[in-house]
Amino acid sequence: MKYNSNNSNNAYDDNYEPDYYDDYDYGNNDTKSNKRRRKGQRRKRIVLWLITLGILAILIDLIILLYTGKIWFNSPARKEYPVQGITVSSLQGAINFNALEIENVSFAYIKASEGKSLKDTQFEASWNNSKDSTVKTGAYHKLSFSEDGKSQAENFIQTVGKISNDGYRLLPAVEVTKSGMSLAYSPEKDTVVSILKEYCKAIKDEYAVNPIIITGDKFYKEYLKDDFAGYRLWIIDLFSKPDSISWSLWNYSPRGKLNGTSNSNNYIDLSVFNGDRQDFVKLQY
């Protein structure tokens, strides 16, 4: 260490700095440190972006596969559910029921009407053509929450006419789901119940049976459970088997692709019956 020779008491020089400080470049060291830190941050951002892009690519592929029906959340085994069927309307165009036989389709429900005035343009042709196949067919109505139930039932009855009891026709069905304007708001429970009760009464007066109710698990529990507990249910559940309630039919996918439809661009709703072929007889009109 250096001492101040002019100081008789050998005190330390207040202005003295150690030799090893002389060659130390603080500015240069800080610059290198900052560069390393910035490089590390850039690498982290790049890795994060790559991970994000990878996740987005996987999600896009998954959405495409789901939309095209190549994969779906549910795939009920034919061994467990031997009676499998479809739902069709004018969206699928003309139906070749003999081709559906080859696809092992056991039943097909054909849209007949909606609201109090709309009639499906393809219903009559599909209804009549189905007689030449072994595919059991039924007719269904799409319920409107803004029109009275009796008028809607009259529309269905006028469209379908008499239902023969020759074993080829199935019980009538009514779809009670949100769509169109009702998606933007929640209809009053009392309104839904009143309209559906009116509709079902008119159908029973005409055909002597209650219609099968097509609806979602949540909608049934929220709106219908208290007033329609004894009705056969056709539950729409695209994500899992509806085990929480008793059901007769289960619509498990809206992305079916089968031979037998002239408009192959539109998908088909796929459903299964909860039982064997002997039990299925109970659904025949």
List the helices and strands and how they pair.
Elements (H helix, E strand, L loop, with lengths): L25 H42 L16 E5 L8 H6 L4 E8 L3 E2 L3 H7 L6 E7 L6 H12 L12 E3 L13 H19 L4 E5 H8 L8 E4 L12 E8 L11 E6 L3 H4 L5
Parallel strand pairs: 1-2, 2-4, 4-5, 5-6, 6-7, 7-8
Antiparallel strand pairs: 1-9, 2-3, 8-9
Helix pairs in contact: 4-5
Quick overview of this protein structure:
This protein has about 280 residues and is of the alpha/beta class. It has helices spanning about 25-65, 95-100, 125-130, 150-160, 190-205, 215-225, 275-280; strands at about 85-90, 105-115, 120, 135-140, 175, 210-215, 235, 250-255, 270-275. The termini are far apart.
Can you tag this structure with a few keywords?
single chain; 285 residues; alpha/beta; TIM Barrel; 2 domains; eight-stranded mixed barrel; 7 helices; 9 strands; 17% strand
What string, H for helix and E for strand, traces the elements in order?
HEHEEHEHEHEHEEEH
Biggest sheet, spatial arrangement of strands: 1-2-4-5-6-7-8-9
CATH topology of the largest domain: TIM Barrel
By DSSP, the count of extended strands is 9
Structural class: alpha/beta
Overall average residue pLDDT = 86
- Uncertain segments are 1-12
Strand content: 15-25%
Give structural notes:
By secondary structure, this protein is of the alpha/beta class. It has 2 domains: 1-67; 74-283, TIM Barrel. The protein has helices at residues 26-67, 97-102, 123-129, 149-160, 189-207, 217-224, 277-280, and strands spanning 84-88, 107-114, 118-119, 136-142, 173-175, 212-216, 233-236, 249-256, 268-273. It has an 8-stranded mixed β-barrel with strand order 1-2-4-5-6-7-8-9.
